[in-house]
Structures are given as structure tokens and as C-alpha cells.
Design the sequence.
């Protein structure tokens, strides 16, 4: 999916600490590791939105991701994951994320994902809870990413 990230008002930023084990034989952060940074960003967003976040309370699961890698992340780069919700469906949430250099705002990678509501007891899809939608709307109104 093509999304102009320059028109997204990212409200959530998670600084990422690079580790030696994140770097591969090509001397850049491995793409698989970058995917885990987006996972951290999603969890950080959920925690910030709800004020607290317990793994036992997770009722949204990741069902689709698309990545666009634009530049290599090097070990000495200072990076963060920015996260925003694009839209809600009745049973889904569309999310956009990017990894940026916090000094230059250079974008290294973007991630478009779809998350779906999930009912643990029935092991099936479920509607996105209205409470979560209200929490997201309140969060998006008050937060600002520092650039």
C-alpha cells in the first residue's frame, strides 16, 4: 500500500537502543530486527493509549504487514519508531509506522499493518472495542511527537 508518510501526524515516538547483535555481516541493522522494532512501537502505542497494558488483556492481533526499506540503519544511528493509527474498521485497525533518525528525521523504513480484534475464548475474530477507539481518539488529540 502506498501511503504518503509526510502527511501523517505521528503522535507516538519510541526511541530505540541499537545493540551489537542487531547488526549483520553487511554492517547494518538486519531487516528482521527492524521488524521487531516495529513490534516494540506497536506495543508502546497500545500502552500509551490505554495508560497501562497487560499481555493478558491483548484482544488485538497482527494479521498483515508491509514494509518498505529505504535506507540502511547503521550501528551509530540514533533512531526511533513513530506510530499512528490510520483508521478503524468494525473488526480491524490500520496502522502506519516509520523508523527515523532522531537527529535528521531521515526515514529508513515504513511499516503498514492491519490488526484485527480477537476473542480468546472463541478463538475467532471480534469487533474492535469501542473503549479502545475512544482511548485512541483522546490520545491522538493530546499528544505531539517532538521533532
Sequence:
Amino acid at each position: 500500500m502506498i501511503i504518503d508518510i509526510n502527511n501523517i501526524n505521528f503522535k507516538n515516538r519510541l526511541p530505540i537502543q541499537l545493540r551489537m547483535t542487531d547488526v549483520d555481516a553487511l554492517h547494518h541493522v538486519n531487516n528482521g530486527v527492524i521488524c521487531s522494532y516495529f513490534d516494540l512501537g506497536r506495543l508502546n502505542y497500545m500502552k500509551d493509549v490505554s495508560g497501562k497494558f497487560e499481555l493478558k488483556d491483548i484482544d488485538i492481533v497482527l494479521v498483515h504487514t508491509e514494509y518498505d526499506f529505504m535506507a540502511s540503519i547503521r550501528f551509530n544511528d540514533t533512531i526511533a519508531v513513530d506510530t499512528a493509527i490510520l483508521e478503524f474498521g468494525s473488526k480491524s485497525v490500520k496502522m502506519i509506522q516509520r523508523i527515523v533518525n532522531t537527529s535528521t528525521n531521515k526515514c529508513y523504513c515504513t511499516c503498514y499493518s492491519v490488526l484485527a480484534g480477537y476473542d480468546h475464548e472463541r478463538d475467532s475474530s471480534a469487533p474492535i472495542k469501542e473503549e479502545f477507539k475512544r482511548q485512541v481518539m483522546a490520545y491522538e488529540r493530546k499528544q505531539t511527537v517532538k521533532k
